[in-house]
């Protein structure tokens, strides 16, 4: 960018950068117009900005962490996102994707390291896309996640000093996942591989164990891959849409130890599958069932619509919040059982239910939160009088919720199948409390409007994405109808940048 002669009096000093001598340091000077100039401290000459292009190598200090987990630094008023860095790091990086105001970069060398940087527990942590933060001290992970929530609520939601509590830590920061699903590939030498994709690609990182999954699953992963190899079963090729086996999925009951194995396949071309499934059931006493899910579409979606049990049971048992649950392979349940219980306990404490309230749980899934909360209601009412209603669009999840209610003798709860935006206005009574737990994209605008019309005394909004939470909370609070009283983050996904939240709103009038 060509520079025209300017006087220092016509500019405002934007960044002093520790000037020591006239020739050692530069000042970045800005006019009132959005133009950035670089000049030496000598007033006799100006020099143009350094180039800003792909492949350029620069030094950058990391000062923050972004929602996706990347470190954030600044270079000449532009933002640089660098994976595998920590606030406090200074690194030499190469720009890999350049836009006018920001760039993505790859770390080449650490110049200085942050005091919050640790050695990852996984040998492929720098390559595997499963975790983003294994190189970050766990206490700092919790601080960073609270920061992500505060940042979203202030910048996206417009809240001034939002009431965000410290993050509830996961009882286990490793070996916490109760469900894992691995894509399969063939290596260049014809070996069956299973693992997670490399960051930003569809190149598979082969794993025989994973430090964030329940460690009781490790022997099954390595051995079943070998069994597939020995059987000569064809592994799915996503480019050609050929082969059969697409994914291996494991679900384990943390309290019971029961394991369910599901093979996701394009078709049924698996000779002697029933025989092999029987061998697995005998070989692994904790394995209670083997299921087959058919996904014949050319898609990135993992599961197809049809799942059936080959041998054993189509579900595992789990103990959650003192309830006995049946969990199938294809319905959603929080992957961190213990952390979900911690958040549920915080919700129960905040609600302080007296037993007379009427509660609606929108997007209830299999009733993970509906059933424990419903258990606290209706003790002083006739059996069968409905005190809680769960709304869910997935029929299979509702069937499972009803089954789990029966299993625990909770008879004052009702579940309805359909879209929340249609079902919520049809509730036949005035709810005192509405619990929301929508998908990552947040609530439909019609759901927000229905809540503003219904005006329940309290709303609990559970979210796995702070930015959509902030957007929806702003809509609920913008006219002063509701007041945000507390946001309780919880760490359901240690070693990653993901954070769960429960936001509590109270009717203002």
TrEMBL record:
Binding positions (S-adenosyl-L-methionine): 334, 363, 392, 437
Keyword DNA-binding among UniProt keywords: no
Catalytic site: 464 (nucleophile)
Keywords: Methyltransferase, S-adenosyl-L-methionine, Transferase
UniProt xrefs under Gene3D superfamilies: 2.40.50.1070, Nucleic acid-binding proteins (2.40.50.140), Vaccinia Virus protein VP39 (3.40.50.150)
The protein's enzyme class: transferase
Domain TRAM stretches: 51-109
Alphabetized GO MF terms: rRNA (uridine-C5-)-methyltransferase activity
Coiled coil spans: none
GO biological process terms, semicolon-separated: rRNA base methylation
EC numbers for this chain: 2.1.1.-
Family the UniProt entry places it in: Belongs to the class I-like SAM-binding methyltransferase superfamily. RNA M5U methyltransferase family.
NCBIfam families cross-referenced by the UniProt entry: rumA (TIGR00479)
Protein name according to UniProt: Enzyme
Species name: Limnospira indica PCC 8005
Phylogenetic classification of the source organism: Bacteria, Bacillati, Cyanobacteriota, Cyanophyceae, Oscillatoriophycideae
């Amino acid at each position: 960018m060509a520079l025209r002669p300017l006087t220092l009096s016509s500019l405002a000093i934007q960044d002093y950068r520790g000037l020591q001598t006239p020739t050692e340091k530069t000042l970045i000077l800005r006019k009132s117009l959005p133009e950035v100039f670089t000049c030496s401290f000598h007033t006799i000459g100006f020099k143009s900005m350094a180039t800003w292009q792909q492949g350029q190598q620069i030094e950058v200090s990391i000062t923050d962490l972004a929602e996706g987990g990347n470190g954030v630094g600044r270079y000449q008023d532009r933002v640089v996102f660098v994976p595998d860095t920590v606030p406090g790091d200074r690194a030499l990086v190469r720009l890999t994707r350049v836009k006018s105001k920001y760039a993505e970069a790859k770390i080449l060398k650490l110049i200085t390291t942050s005091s919050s940087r640790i050695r990852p527990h996984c040998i492929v942590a720098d390559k595997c896309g499963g975790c983003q933060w294994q190189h970050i001290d766990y206490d700092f992970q919790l601080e960073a996640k609270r920061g992500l929530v505060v940042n979203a609520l202030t910048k996206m939601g417009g809240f001034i000093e939002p009431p965000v509590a410290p993050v509830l830590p996961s009882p286990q920061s490793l070996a916490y996942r109760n469900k894992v699903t691995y894509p399969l590939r063939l290596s260049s030498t014809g070996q069956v591989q299973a693992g997670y994709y490399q960051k930003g690609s569809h190149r598979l990182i082969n794993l025989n164990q994973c430090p964030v999954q329940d460690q009781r699953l490790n022997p099954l992963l390595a051995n079943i891959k070998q069994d597939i190899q020995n059987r000569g079963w064809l592994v799915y090729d996503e480019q050609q849409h050929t082969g059969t086996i697409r994914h291996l999925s494991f679900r384990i009951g943390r309290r019971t130890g029961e394991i369910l194995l599901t093979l996701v396949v394009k078709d049924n071309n698996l000779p002697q599958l029933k025989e092999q499934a029987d061998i697995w059931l005998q070989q692994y006493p904790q394995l209670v069932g083997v299921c087959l899910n058919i996904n014949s579409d050319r898609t990135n979606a993992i599961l197809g619509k049809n799942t059936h049990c080959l041998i054993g049971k189509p579900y595992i048992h789990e103990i959650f919040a003192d309830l006995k649950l049946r969990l199938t392979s294809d319905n959603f349940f929080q992957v961190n059982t213990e952390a979900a219980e911690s958040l549920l306990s915080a919700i129960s404490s905040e609600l302080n239910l007296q037993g007379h309230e009427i509660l609606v749980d929108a997007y209830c899934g299999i009733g993970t939160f509906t059933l424990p909360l419903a258990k606290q209601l209706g003790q002083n009412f006739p059996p069968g009088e409905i005190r809680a209603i769960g709304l869910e669009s997935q029929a299979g999840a509702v069937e499972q919720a009803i089954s789990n209610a029966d299993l625990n003798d909770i008879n004052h709860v009702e579940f309805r199948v359909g879209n929340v935006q249609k079902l919520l206005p049809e509730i036949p009574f005035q709810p005192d409390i509405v619990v929301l737990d929508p998908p990552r994209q947040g609530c439909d605008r019609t759901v927000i409007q229905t809540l503003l019309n219904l005006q329940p005394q309290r709303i609990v909004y559970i979210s796995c994405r702070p930015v959509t939470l902030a957007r929806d909370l702003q809509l609920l609070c913008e006219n002063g109808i509701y007041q945000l009283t507390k946001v309780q983050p919880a760490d359901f996904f240690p070693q990653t940048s993901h954070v769960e939240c429960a936001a509590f709103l109270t009717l203002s009038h």
